[in-house]
Design a protein that fits this description.
By secondary structure, this protein is α/β, with parallel strands linked by helices. The protein has two domains: 188 residues, Spore Coat Polysaccharide Biosynthesis Protein SpsA, Chain A; 73 residues, no CATH class. The protein is 38% helix and 17% strand. Strands 1, 2, 3, 4, 5, 6, 7, 8, 9 and 10 form a ten-stranded mixed beta sheet that branches. Helix 2 links the parallel strand 2 and strand 3. Helix 1 runs parallel beside helix 2. The protein is globular, with a radius of gyration of 19 Å. The chain starts with 44 loop residues before the first strand and ends in a 12-residue tail after the last helix. 40% of the residues are buried.
């Protein structure tokens, strides 16, 4: 996935304050303290970590977070027995809960499962994390400083190192952020809705960020907040190819190309430049797939299937023929 850095932002930042949190009974400890929206510290943050056969990667992700946030809620998308054993050990630790879905319900569904615990606990912020990401020890401290400087912030993203390449070194407003490492004000979900579960995996971040921008909000990159993120399978590539290509399974190719069409359908007239850039990158990627993919024909078939399923208006999980 290419990180696009154009700085166009629709509208201005909203000054609407968060509505009072509706208190419901649940398994998460509640806190009746109320802080003004402009204040933020680690106790205001719940981290939701999406887990799927992560083994020790999930543990490393959680360990990097546990002293920085108030609570960590791991949502597991049907991992195998060995990975579930790692989650059981984590669940014994204080301020960590695990929700086992028993099957792969997709990234969007898992992220949405973190919103309700954040509301129940009275947390003002939700930190969304992949199991493949490792944050710096001062991530939340850097975010808190950014919020103190600009209390109207509703969505913050870190500086990212991807496959040993440093990205996103400039701060300020950006066009979109990946979901991992993204800090979102919980009250925003009441205004723009939750993550789109129909996308299942890819383009959930694009869709959410474009909805934010269409509602008049901005996405802010915080260079002092650091995160290492793994994008696709590691492979040695020429510099030009590295910008447009990462090795993925054919099924992931299916989601990328199918979900791009849904995204283009929704936002072409609001953000034509952004949609055009993403579409162009996908077209260039088609060329690299033929030369660099391990199974290019399988990838091309999966992409064709994704285009066909879009035409049939299918969303959600990829299903084998006859499934």
């Amino acid at each position: 996935m290419i990180l696009l850095n154009d700085s166009g932002v629709a509208g201005v930042l909203s000054t609407k304050r968060a509505e009072p949190v509706r208190r419901v009974h649940g398994p998460f400890p509640k806190d009746e303290r109320v802080r003004p929206p402009e204040c933020m510290n680690s106790e205001d943050v719940l981290a939701v970590v999406v887990s799927y056969n992560g083994l020790q990667k999930t543990k490393q992700t959680v360990e990097a977070l546990r002293r920085q946030v108030r609570h960590i809620h791991i949502v597991d998308n049907g991992s195998d027995v060995e990975s579930l054993g790692v989650l059981e050990s984590l669940e014994r630790e204080p301020r960590i809960t695990v929700e086992r879905l028993g099957e792969n319900r997709g990234v969007g569904y898992a992220l949405n499962r973190g919103v309700q615990p954040a509301r129940e606990m009275g947390c003002s912020w939700l930190l969304t994390m992949d199991q493949d990401s490792l944050v710096d020890g001062s991530l939340i401290e850097a975010y808190a400083a950014a919020v103190a400087e600009n209390p109207k912030c509703v969505c913050l993203t870190p500086q990212i190192t991807t496959n040993n390449n440093t990205k996103d070194v400039a701060g300020g407003q950006i066009s979109y952020a990946i979901t991992s490492g993204n800090l979102v004000r919980v009250s925003v979900f009441d205004q723009i809705g939750l993550y789109d579960e129909g996308f299942f995996v890819d383009y959930i971040d694009f869709d959410f960020c474009l909805r934010l921008r269409r509602a008049g909000y901005a996405i802010h990159r915080v260079p002092a907040a650091m995160m290492e993120h793994r994008l696709g399978d590691s492979v040695e590539l020429p510099t030009v190819a590295r910008k447009y290509y990462a090795r993925h399974s054919p099924v992931r190719r299916y989601y990328m190309y199918r979900n791009f069409l849904y995204m283009a359908e929704r936002y072409l007239f609001d953000f034509p430049g952004f949609v055009f850039k993403v579409g162009l990158s996908l077209m260039l990627r088609l060329l690299f797939i033929g030369f660099l993919d391990v199974s290019p024909l399988a990838s091309y078939r999966a992409i064709a299937r994704g285009l066909w399923d879009y035409a049939l208006r299918k969303k959600g999980r990829y299903m084998e023929r006859g499934g």
